Amino acid sequence: MPSSNLKPVTVYWRPQVPNPSKVIIILEELGVPYQGVFVEHGDLKTPKFEVVNPNGRVPAIHDPNTDVTLWESGAIVTYLIDQYDTEKSLTYDTLKEKYQLLQWQHFQSTGHGPYLGQAAWFLLFHHEPLESAKVRYIKETQRVIKVLDTWLEGKEFLVGDKCTYADLSFVTWNAAIGFFMNGRPKQEWDPENQFPNFSRWQNSMLARPSVRKATSLAKEEDVHS
Fold first, then answer.
1. Taking every annotated instance into account, which residue ranges of this chain make up the domain GST C-terminal (predicted)?
2. I need a surface site. Which of 26, 60, 129, 136 has the fewest CB within 10 A?
């Protein structure tokens, strides 16, 4: 279906949060129209929003073109790719590449984002300073970034010879590292020197128009295609 015939996908979001931004990046890349619904932090656990997402988190989407409502960013990205990437611009349908993409997507959602989220929590938000927790999650952040850095040696992208949804699934979480590591010793986070392959790849992702738009959104009225 041409995008001009599509109704906008509703995206439930909050600004400057990695997972909602991940969904907006994919919508932008695919040219799928969308409209944001800002959810106040205090409304996330209310019965009204839990009808949309019983887990009380963003992002969630409702697609009026298919009457599909989904939550969990990984599931949403998979749906958008399956439903709207008819030209395979962000994916592959060859056997090896198809499952390598899933491998990296699952790593991001289970072995990357959660550790970075815990690092951010203990470094910025926890009510008491727990240095042991900070050190643990800084080390985990370094470890998972090292996985990416090692894999990207001699490669421009995670899979194949083009940017895919797997690459784009990492970019917003990666962008948050500098924020929550701000003020820590340089030996703990110096990506240009410690992880040069990762840094090159991340910078190339940050330069994409879809990423620039998604990471700059701050107001509800901005969130639309």
1. 94-225
2. 129
